[in-house]
Amino acid sequence: MDHRSLHAPVDFNKSIEEMTPEEKARYDHQMMHEKHKGHEAMHSEIVLILFVTLIIAQIALVQWKKKHYKSYSAVTLLAMWVIPLGISFFYGFIRFIIIWSIFSIITAVVIRKAISKPIEGSTPRLVYKWFYFIYKLSYGLGIVGYLIMMATFLGFNFIFNQAPHIWMDVGLMFVFYGLYIGVLGRDISEICSERMASLVGYYTPQGIPTRHLEENVCAVCGNQLLVSEKEEGIIENTYKLSCNHVFHEFCIRGWCIVGKKQTCPYCKEKVDLKKMFCNPWERPHVLYGRLLDWIRFLVAWQPLIFFIVQGINYALGLE
Question: How confident is the model at residue 102 (pLDDT cuts 50, 70, 90)?
């Protein structure tokens, strides 16, 4: 049927059964236009509501973070932990639910050890190593996902007789899990590091040390050092800061990079990360930690903002 004939007049005195196929087509077409009449203005209102809500939400979040950082961090962490799980249950993302459950169970055990009183001597090292492992795992997943997507753009998927969308889906999946686990582990490690530092007894929240540090003892975990700072360790090396306090490699990395603590855990002197980790392969770890801060908004707050927008549209009768 010619497109122009769809706009020809329809005899509405006829019933549907009495209409010819051409008349039924014109009737359905005109009814569809009548149903969607005025939707252009409605769509503009929806876009305007979304734009205004995003601006207001951004301003509110920035002010909240400035004035009440602890409550902002706590709510953000809870939202990041719960919202993706709820979305996964709604859409049936079984893989994410399984990975989320494994990560949450192990992390919950680690958190319990970190906040237990009295704290065990082996707990700080265990906690730091776990979150450092999570940090490296998230970094590795992100790199692998990025390489897979770049390989897809270059056409390497055709060598293995695979469709481009399959490789892109796999690459995006690796990137998502890397960023999500990285952000979640980063925030939880900060809470654990602050709690453990106080429980171990090296300093109080006011910054006053409450325990004397013995020689050849790591200023983070309180255990004996394996090698001196000038020796090459088999498992890990020993680091000394400008304040002359020494640490296990895993402990100080966990404290400074994973736990976002750029001060000595004993005397709270400022730590120069560039000088302490001068290897160029280690510098991206610090930059990667800053990158994760930008992902937090997309995972925790963006879904909530869209949910609020949907609620406003529903209240105003906008479909």
Answer: very high
Residue 263's domain spans which residues? 204-284
CA 92 – CA 116 distance, rounded (Å): 36
Establish if 19 belongs to a structural domain. Answer: no
Residue 53 has which token pair? Answer: 């809500």
Does some domain include residue 18?
no
Same domain (yes/no): 149, 194: yes
d(CA 210, CA 200): 10
CB 167 within 8 A of CB 195: no
DSSP letter for 213, please: P
Half-sphere exposure in the Cβ direction for 19 (13 Å, CA): 16
pLDDT value of residue 57: 84
162 shares a domain with 297: yes
pTM: 0.67
Segment holding 306, helix H or strand E:
helix 302-315
Instruction: With CA atoms as reference, report the closest residue to 117 among 201, 220, 214, 189.
Output: 201
Q: DSSP letter at 14?
A: S
